[in-house]
Amino acid sequence: MQKITTTKEKIEEIKQRGYPLEFGEILSQALNNYQKIVWIAGAGVLLLSIVFFAIIMGLAAIFIGLSTFGRDIADFQIQNFSAAGIIVALVGGAIAVALIKPFYAGILRVAHHADAKEDFDFSTLFYYYKSEYLKEIIIAGILIGFCSNGISTALELTGNTILGSVISYIIILLTLFTTPLIIFGNLKAIEAIQASLMLVSRNFFMLLALMIVAVILAGLGVFAFCIGILFTIPLIFSVQYMIYTNVIGIDEKNELEEIGNS
């Protein structure tokens, strides 16, 4: 039988046969990986949080005033928005997702370098903001953001707030493989989204259980003076990376080409 070496070949194989996942093994691998990336990834999450907070506060101060913004946040309900406000919220949310996605890809790159015992530093987190993959990462982020925000907003407008949140989380899970398929498998945005939907559907409940446990473990950081959660969040990304490597693996040819172009 011919050896499966490329991402697309592996995906085609999974379409036919599915794939196994070892719950305990993936968690063990993820915890080991997390210990190697926690400080750099945590510092990156902290920096990104500060930057986004500063941008939001700055825009609020300029356009509506901080006191008004504070009252609006305290009584935030999408039903109170005008049609223009809803459109702005949808577009803004999609853009925010698109801007964060390259950083998320950078954390996956850090996780990969740690797993492969390769050198990495703080700048590795921002590698994909100047990478050839940036366009596809942003396209995928915008498409996923519009889909998730659009469906959840529509449900919230009809009073189904909880259902809207559940649908958003399901979409996040269904697109779990999208970014790693772009950066490690060299797939285009649409191809990566389609492949991710198929891959997650093949083992939905196992992947759901893994991500729930990862989120619970990461949430324990709240007890470390709240800010600790910024340094436990990277565990979620380590779990996602280990899921990808166990299901697909890294396309060695693509990885070598990327190193040659860097």
Number of helical regions: 12
What class would the helix/strand composition place it in?
A: mainly alpha
The ordered string of helix (H) and strand (E) elements is: HHHHHHHHHHHH
Poorly predicted tracts of residues: none
* Strands, total number: 0
Helix percent reads over 70%
- Strand proportion, as a percent range, falls in under 5%
Number of domains: 1
Largest sheet: none
> Rg, please?
19 Å
Shape: globular
Explain what the structure shows.
The protein is an all-alpha fold and 262 residues long. It has one domain. It is built from twelve helices and no strands. Helix 2 crosses helix 4, helix 2 packs across helix 11 and helix 4 crosses helix 5. It is globular. The two termini are 34 Å apart. The mean pLDDT is 84.
Task: Give a concise summary.
The chain has about 260 residues and is mainly alpha-helical.
Topology:
Elements: H1 7-17, H2 23-63, H3 66-74, H4 83-115, H5 134-157, H6 161-174, H7 178-183, H8 189-202, H9 204-219, H10 229-232, H11 234-247, H12 252-261
Helix pairs in contact: 2-4, 2-11, 4-5, 4-11, 5-6, 5-8, 9-11
